[in-house]
Amino acid sequence: MTEIRNQLFINGDWTEARSSLRSALFNPATGEQITTVPVGGAEDAKAAIEAAYGAFPGWSRTSAEERSVYLRRIYDLIVANADRLAEIMTLEQGKPVKEAKGEVLWGADFFLWYSEEAKRINGEIIPSSRTTQRILVQRQPIGVVAAITPWNFPSSMITRKVAPALAAGCTVVVKPAPETPLSAIALFEIFEQVGLPAGVANIVVGNAQEIGRELLDNDKVRKISFTGSTPVGKYLLEQSAKQVKKVSLELGGHAPFIVFADADLEAAAEGLLYNKFQNNGQTCICANRIFVHESIEAEFTELFAKKLKSITVGNGMKDVNVGPLIHDRALAKVHGHVQDAVAKGAKIVAGGEKLSGGEYDNGSYYAPTLLSGVTSEMDVFREETFGPVAPFIAFRTEEEAIRMANDTPFGLASYIYTRDLATTMRVADKLEYGMVGINESALGYVQAPFGGIKQSGMGREGGQHGVDDFLEYKYLNLNF
Ligand code: ADP
């Protein structure tokens, strides 16, 4: 792998943090130190905000075509560098390199899609109630955007925010997760190569609390776009109230996956396998509670258990299906959930333990796990596990499945498997979720509005709706 710049990128320059401090970054597959990264703080965040603020008037007034061309070039370069970006991601995040490349390319697609959408940020002309007037509605970029992103999708969670923000004419300050700074910095190498004007896109890695404080307190930041945990999202929302900053939040989920008696069980099991073990269960749209109709529970459990045996776990640099968990804290939470479930009567059908021996001793590896007989008293039913655990819960009636599925403060992704259209429509209507997969377990598509309701967040990312989150409406009343 070619060397990475590994610094902050502020106002078009690579720079060390003001503190000159660097912190060590570790590979979750081996426990080895990969490199060190700068520890940015409030002063660095302030400089990045100033740069973005200074660049905003120029960038927001470029033509849509000009912005579109920049975005298209970024897309081309990410695609051309996909192998390198994937390797960087696997090193710091752990997911298998093939999966990492898939994420890099999917992330690149946001630049392709928004390079087109940049040209379609249209306004409206509305007839007024007075005949001498026309009401014009323009959509204008909101200003400086702070994008705070998580470690589970180190590349695409940045591109899903930055591409629409730049398309809209906003400038950005990115604060990536401390676990995965290199994937973020590598994207900025590309932004530099395409010659984005200085200050349009800036990155500050380092102390989350300090950087976050500055992003919240600095009135030049007009919008916070966050993907991460619900507690941090609530904090950012609360703190944004002081200056009434706009906020988009993509927070935790607790996805129900409902398999009805008439479902194509093979398709449901395949869909669940992909959904549950993508990124080792560390996604906010992973199935966390699998509701199976009692009449097919035994058959479906056996089918899924058989598929689960085919999953290989190991260092993501090798040809495996699943890598390590991000760190030991994640491992402890996953195992804690399994132990709690077993203590309360669940049965381990497969897995249920930390993997050990050989390479497993150096990383946070957990066996793909299937639990049956799960009930609402267990932690797995109440909290997001964020790991490779599939908890099965039997249900009798449609009403019961819907009631249990909605019995959570979260409302991000949900899934139903049935062959019946009437069941599909009835259940999809009643599920309190932002997204419903119907005989489909993948939901992240560049064209689609990804996002949640209830305590899973606000705002949408992707598609036309995704660019809206970076725009304000301005209404002109034209009297003639
Ligand atoms: P996780 O628990 O999965 O790491 P977090 O919500 O803690 O999820 O992290 C998501 C992102 O939010 C990361 O970039 C993290 O550094 C950032 N973050 C955490 N705490 C704060 C904070 N107080 N202010 C700003 N950003 C924060």
From TrEMBL:
One BP term from GO: gamma-aminobutyric acid catabolic process
Keyword Oxidoreductase: yes
Keyword tags: Oxidoreductase
Entry protein name: NAD-dependent succinate-semialdehyde dehydrogenase
Domain of life: Bacteria
Similarity comment: family membership: Belongs to the aldehyde dehydrogenase family.
A molecular-function term among this protein's GO annotations: succinate-semialdehyde dehydrogenase (NAD+) activity
Domain Aldehyde dehydrogenase positions: 14-475
SUPFAM superfamilies found in the cross-reference section: ALDH-like (SSF53720)
Organism (species): Cohnella herbarum
Keyword Oxidoreductase: yes
Gene3D superfamilies documented for this protein: Aldehyde Dehydrogenase, Chain A, domain 1 (3.40.605.10), Aldehyde Dehydrogenase, Chain A, domain 2 (3.40.309.10)
InterPro entries associated with the record: Ald_DH/histidinol_DH, Ald_DH_C, Ald_DH_CS_CYS, Ald_DH_N, Aldehyde_DH_dom, Aldehyde_DH_Superfamily
